[in-house]
Amino acid sequence: CILYFHVNTDIRLRYARTIMETKISNSANISQEVSFSAILPDNAFISEFKIIVDDHEYKAYVKEKEAAKKEYEEAVSQGRTAAHVAMNARDSQRFTVSLNVEPEKKVVFTLTYEELLTRKLGVYRHVVNLDPGEIVQDLKVTVKIKEYTNITKLHVPALITSNEINDNQDSNPLATIERQSSHVAVVKFSPSPDQQRELAGEGIKGQFVVEYDVDRSDHSAQVLLEDGYFVLYFSPEELAPLRKHVSFVLDVSGSMSGRKIEQLKLAMGTILDELNANDSFSIAIFSASVQVWDYNLTEALMVERIGRLTGMRWGDYGEDETEVENQNRHVVASATPENITSAKQFISLLNTVGEKPHPILIFLTDGKANIGVNSLNQIVRNVGIANTGNCSIFALGLGSDVDFNFLKKLSLQNFGFARKIYEASDTALQLRDFYRYVASPLLSKVTFKYEENQVMRNTLTKFKYHTVFSGSEMVVAGKLTQDNFTGIIEGDSQSGTSTYTFVPKVASTTNATAGFMERLWAYLTIRQLLEKKEAIPDEDDSSPSFEDDDSFISNNQSIIQLALRYSFVTPFTSLVVVDSQTRHKSCTNTTDCFSPHSVTPSRRNHVRTPGYPRTGNIADSIQEGSSRKAAAPSVAVHDEERNNSDSRVLSNVNQVTWLTELVHNGSVLLHTGVNGTTENLQLAGEDQPNEPHSACTSPVSQSGHCRHFRYCVLSVFTSSQQDFLPYFCRIDNYVGVCCPDHLHPAAAS
């Protein structure tokens, strides 16, 4: 049974760190299997995991995936035990560990994950998925929010027990809100066993949600500084929306028959009801040919026809064409009096408004190419060539068998994003919420401009945004080279070019939050690199055609280096568990369904913690049966011998074999840049004191502080610069090492 289930989230400046801990007891007189399962937001990274069995702790650290896989296979070949991993949730990722526990024993599982909350429809939304599988005597959820400015909105909706969207805005009667100050709040949820039974007879299964927003009445751009890093939050709420021209491209090919075409009709009926009167729109359907609705943009006819899909006239354009890409480049209409009149009315409307509408294309399809060009990568390239007007393309995937990876590549390379629309009774609400997110573009061609000598360019995250929508937020982070920091944000608004300035503020730092902004930067960098990686055609290793931010090139090695340095589990890294005690026990698992065995002593232990496939894009439900699969992070296990070898301090930097080739006149050239670029840094001499600097966490999840390289030379990185980079930290312009606090390094000679 579960003795307790605790969830604690600390949200600081939108960055959320969640610790989920549960203690499970096997009170039987025989060994039994126990499981720990957590449903994580899709954009979250696991940063720590540990298991305590019979007072022995197994603590995980992050390792490059292939190396962890090799060690795990060695463990399996030696007959180590295995556990079970599962994943099936709508728009989320499930982390599951199952293992047998001996009679009368207890096991504690602790999982930590981190994410940057995104602003959508005017609120930040933090979701805690609860599914303990039984009534729990001690169940607690605590969410602490600390922002720099006042928290204006704070709402805890009723527990979401259905997978589908619900417009019910009732508050959760079992949640308490404590406002400790205008910018700090604590939300608590601790239902008693009886209250849990009232919600669900077999235990809570749902989502605990906290929604909030902050005051930005006196600023649209907020820049905060901490420990040499900065983060920019930009949300220009005071602007009027840009006029937009929405083009709907609807797939009516054979693969869309049945439920999918009904979804499409329902979707269009929902979205058309959301159009603004001053917007323009057009509709094209395609299968073997393309048909374009013969529309008239006068206000009276727009109001009359909006929502009347069954009465639309479809022109006979492009009947002989078979390639969607070629047909979408232009529409040829006969020069009939009716068409000429419609064209004149359209031109007249443009002249009256005076500004070209902001182009948006919404593509509704299952992503399956049946006729003509059937290479999905070629289709992506063709669309990119045809999209000369830099139109944002948003792809909505219909059906359980949708080719979602293709739709993501198509949209990400064309300034948009993809969403999976699930076949359920809330399909219309899914579409409505999507369209409301993109319905009000406020700025286009948005750029963050800064003084070149103030920011380390190769650390800058995405700083050019195609569009900023109402209710959303643009986020930029990076590392500063000096204390002075100035800059502007520019973008095209309805009234012309809009410029925003900012006054940087120093974020308060405590021992508990030291290094927070650096982790926010690392998270955002990895997330954007992964997004760019997803946009690259499968057989193409070149960078995608994003904005001209050439300092931010996506490649696997950059993701791996950052993930190892900051202990994030990504598709390219894995969890490795370390037994921190002198005695050793093992429990192993893989994404295959090996049978779990009892936890027993072993001399050389390997514990492979669970990987997790991913589904969808937004962590907002708990539905079983997701379809999209991805490679799960592999995990291997080590014992204390590895822990000690990582920590052994050598007496002389000359024992670092790779260093001599890189040192020139007291400087060392290291590949520390986000995109693999080289930096010229200094090595400290004996005149520099052996003192702790900024707090950090080592790649083996040990608390530490950055120290000069010469005072913390570890055997684990003496033979390879690649092994050193996860330990690298900066001390001004000097090379530092994230040195575990339990060490007492001797002064180097």
Automatic annotation (TrEMBL):
Q: Where is this region: Disordered?
A: 593-647
- Tell me the keywords, alphabetical order: Disulfide bond, Signal
VWFA domain segment(s): 245-438
Q: Which GO terms describe its cellular component?
A: protein-containing complex
* Stretches assigned to the VIT domain: 1-115
The cross-references to SMART domains, in alphabetical order and at most eight, read:
CLIP, VIT, VWA
Q: Which domain of life is it from?
A: Eukaryota
Question: Could you confirm whether the keyword GTP-binding appears in this record?
Answer: no
Which spans does this entry mark as compositional bias, Polar residues?
A: 593-602
InterPro entries referenced in this protein's UniProt entry, alphabetically: CLIP, ITIH, VIT, VWF_A, vWFA_dom_sf
Gene3D superfamilies in UniProt: von Willebrand factor, type A domain (3.40.50.410)
The protein, known as: Uncharacterized protein
